[in-house]
Amino acid sequence: MAGVLSKQVNLLNIALEGLMLFGAMAGVMFGAWFSSPWVGLLAAMLFAGLLSLIFALFVVDWKANLIVAGLAVNILALGLTAYLLVVLFNARGAFSPSNLTSLPKVNVPIIDQIPILGDILSGHGVMVYLAWISVLLTSLLLYRTPLGLHIRAVGEHKDAAQTAGISVRRVQYVALLLGGILSGMAGAQLSIGDLALFSDNMTNGRGFIALAAVFFGAGNPWLTSLGCLLFGFFEALQYRLQITTGMPPQLLQMMPYLIVVIILVVLALQKRMQKRLA
Amino acid sequence: MNSKTKWQKPLRETGKVVFTLLVALLMGAIVMQLSGKNSIEAYRALFTSALGSRTAIANSLLAATPLIFTGLGAAIAFRAGIFNVGVEGSLYLGAFIAAWVGFTFITLPVVVVIPLAILAAALVGGIWCYIPGVLRARLAVDEIVTTIMLNYVAILFTSYLVNYPFKVPGVANAMSAPISESAKLARLAPPSQLNSGFILGFLAVIMITFIMHRTTLGFELRNVGDNPIFARWSGMPTAWVIEKVMFISGLLGGLAGAANVMGVNYRFMANFSPGYGFTGIAIALLARNSPIGVFFVALLFGILRGGSSTMELFTDVPRDLIRVLEATVIFFVSIEFTLGWLRRRHNGRLDQHPVRDNSGQHTAHPGSDGGSAE
Lengths: 278, 374
Hints:
The complex is a heterodimer.
Chain A: H1 2-8, H2 16-33, H3 37-61, H4 66-89, E1 94-95, E2 105-106, H5 115-121, E3 124-125, H6 126-144, H7 146-156, H8 158-163, H9 168-193, E4 198-199, H10 206-217, H11 221-245, H12 249-277
Antiparallel strand pairs in A: 1-4, 2-3
Chain B: H1 3-34, H2 39-51, H3 54-79, H4 87-104, H5 110-139, H6 143-163, H7 197-214, H8 216-226, H9 228-233, H10 238-265, H11 276-286, H12 291-315, H13 321-336, H14 340-346
Helix pairs in contact in B: 1-13, 2-3, 2-12, 3-7, 3-10, 3-11, 3-12, 4-5, 4-6, 4-10, 4-11, 5-6, 5-10, 7-8, 7-10, 7-12, 8-10, 11-12, 11-13
């Protein structure tokens, strides 16, 4: 959803990856200091949000190149999290604090009584539900509020929006900030959603996969989440196949990345066909 | 052009680079002080271990070798307006192929096996980046996302190769068999591992300078980078130029891999690269895509890298600090990195038509003036 927001202000946010990694780190760090995954989640949102504000300062106010600055955020996150891991916890590579539990699982009251549906929809970590709530909220925000209208207007045509009296600067800031907070939550899901563990570069390209999902959904929250589900499905499939068939894990791990490329190619071909028809 | 103006620009650019690096070192110092480390001690350890002796200098040059290749690879693509992040993937595949040649054709003499391994690595690396190049040129598939994805594919695929088909029995780590003696590049300054790969890197700098400034392709790629619409309208084969540039970019990545396998590790090891390709991007940006600039900036980064492990050893400042320095550099480059092309590409459609103002005169493209009008 973070990607959707930035896409809608027409800022290709490749910093998602780094923001997630930062969130994951903050989640474990503060979770460990306060022995509470909830504090960790809050810290993840706070720090990823802060970092995204810095990113916005560079991109929006100082007219920094978006992609180059995004790259900088990613490298900064990679370096700083690894650095802090060693300096603060004396752990190289991975860190799993003993006093930290992961976020609780949620059993949805009525639904968990229904046989098959209950297994599918109930008993996931809190973040899974928060993710779907965020899809709902993002789509409400974008299509049902004045701010959403402004965000879309800025994305559609910046100068026109400016002329119509919308503060482009403020809108871009807000979108990037919200995107940062959501990325922080995504990072927290990785580090304290299931395992309570942080390892170097644990996001491993998920921020980019999310970007691909945004392309897939053309900036629409529901379509994008469909894309995410698809990628999630392939990832789950990969784990399952690894266990049941004994196929080399590296080949299976390649799948999600290859599929992103294939989907992008298919979308491009489709676009070209449409153009030819029109 | 008189000699004063001729020298002004390079001098000013060098000044900017030095300033950026100083800011980065300052940022690193702040991070160290905040986390309770002695930054002066750390920097002293870093620079003495990188420049303190003949061997130290040789080791810094060694550390710079892969960065020269990846920096050049990034620079030539950027100059043509293509944001190729895929040099890292080419590096992995090139490294593997070089190792494969090295441990398969063990009976071939030096004069055959070394060129063969290098050519194979260059070819495979080139083809790997050629793929996203075609996708970008013919189908307008965003090359940033595809090259990032293909990096993961290349890293995982080579890891698969040494874990399954080319697994060496009895070796616990994921690595290939060692290459033959005749496939090893000559050492230049023992005991340092500095080898003729560095010379190859220097030759690559000259070659790329020549291509960019003295050939038709160079002329075309600079035009495509500066103004793709103008390039197309003046009859340049834009798509073909992009594909060729991507091939060269990947080729350089492949060479970086070959230089590492044949000069340093003498075998392919899974996940061996500490992000040479990405550092190459930082280098190209800082060098403003100038091949000669890449050479010097790569040397500077080589010093930082070369000294960082000793710094970690003696002052327990983690070497990941270097990444923070790199990120700071890129941040600062990103602010003044206001060349027209990236703006044009992501700032909307307006720029695709020449803008007419009320007086009927053509005004400059909104994207090409560095955004000061926005």
